[in-house]
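// run 5 | inverse folding | seed 20
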């Protein structure tokens, strides 16, 4: 049994407040006959009168007073919830949870966060590392994940952000530093310094391991600057997006050498990935647009990709 609808609660509250069928009908945007019929229908279904009809005004019965108590609470809460949802959709309140699969994104995310929060002062901004973008998005841990590993199924949409490539860095005195590029086989037996563990490394899991290429040692170091210092000191080699190391390589007197990976390089397209929806929030769309608008001077070396083009983390690369 479920006779009551929101329209009945609004009707009872308005009639109790106004006390007059004609004026209440005008407020509810109904004809007087339609409102009268609506009241009769719900009274018939409930089996009880909700109002006494007097000459001067309509007065609540005991059953009507009980229903009014519920209507005041429920309608107010519903209206407040609706206002909150509209505010969230318009970017006036809410939260934006951003995940990134690459710790190097923290080189540019802070200034983007500052610009974003100046524009959307009512939005709480959360950020973290996402090792499993698909699972994190499905579990609602993040609203958007910035990644070069766009999930390939119908649960997700993505927006290409910028193009770049992975490169290998090492000290200028490293035995491999004079080569024109790194072959994949050259990683075998090398000390690889990474910001993630062997198990979490997409480069190892998707590129090296299937080819039977095993680094001699896998050193997980959480901070990008620490990787740079260790590689520069000759303690191993690291893998960086080119945009993340570009300013360091341009510094005079740097102890680093950067080599392309394979003869054709190792191109990537970074994308913003999110759950498929027909109504993306205003602030989520704005955040994605702000990354794209940062420009290739700050991010990718190779420019902005076409909207329909995605170059995912490659599984097939030349050896």
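// decoded
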């Amino acid at each position: 049994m479920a006779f009551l609808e929101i329209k009945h609660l609004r009707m009872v509250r308005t009639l109790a407040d106004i006390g007059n069928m004609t004026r209440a009908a005008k407020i509810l945007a109904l004809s007087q006959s339609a409102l009268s019929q609506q009241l009769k229908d719900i009274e018939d279904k409930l089996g009880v009168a909700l109002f006494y009809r007097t000459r001067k005004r309509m007065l609540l019965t005991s059953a009507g007073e009980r229903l009014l108590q519920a209507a005041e609470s429920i309608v107010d809460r519903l209206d407040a919830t609706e206002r909150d949802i509209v505010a969230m959709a318009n970017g006036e309140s809410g939260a934006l949870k951003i995940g990134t699969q690459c710790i190097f994104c923290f080189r540019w995310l802070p200034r983007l966060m500052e610009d974003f929060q100046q524009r959307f002062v009512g939005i709480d901004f959360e950020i973290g590392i996402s090792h499993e973008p698909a699972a994190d998005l499905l579990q609602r841990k993040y609203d958007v994940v910035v990644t070069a590993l766009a999930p390939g199924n119908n649960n997700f949409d993505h927006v290409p952000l910028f193009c770049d490539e992975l490169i290998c860095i090492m000290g200028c005195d490293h035995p491999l530093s004079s080569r024109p590029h790194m072959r994949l086989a050259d990683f075998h037996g090398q000390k690889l310094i990474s910001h993630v563990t062997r198990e979490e490394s997409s480069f190892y899991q998707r590129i090296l391991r299937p080819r039977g290429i095993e680094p001699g040692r896998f050193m997980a170091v959480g901070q990008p600057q620490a990787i740079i210092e260790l590689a520069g000191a000759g303690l191993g080699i690291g893998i960086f997006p080119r945009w993340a190391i570009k300013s360091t390589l341009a510094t005079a007197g740097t102890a680093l050498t950067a080599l392309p990976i394979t003869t054709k390089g190792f191109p990537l397209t970074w994308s913003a990935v999110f759950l498929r929806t027909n109504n993306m929030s205003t602030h989520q769309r704005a955040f994605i647009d702000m990354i794209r608008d940062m420009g290739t001077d700050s991010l990718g070396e190779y420019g902005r990709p076409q909207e329909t083009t995605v170059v995912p983390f490659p599984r097939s690369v030349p050896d």
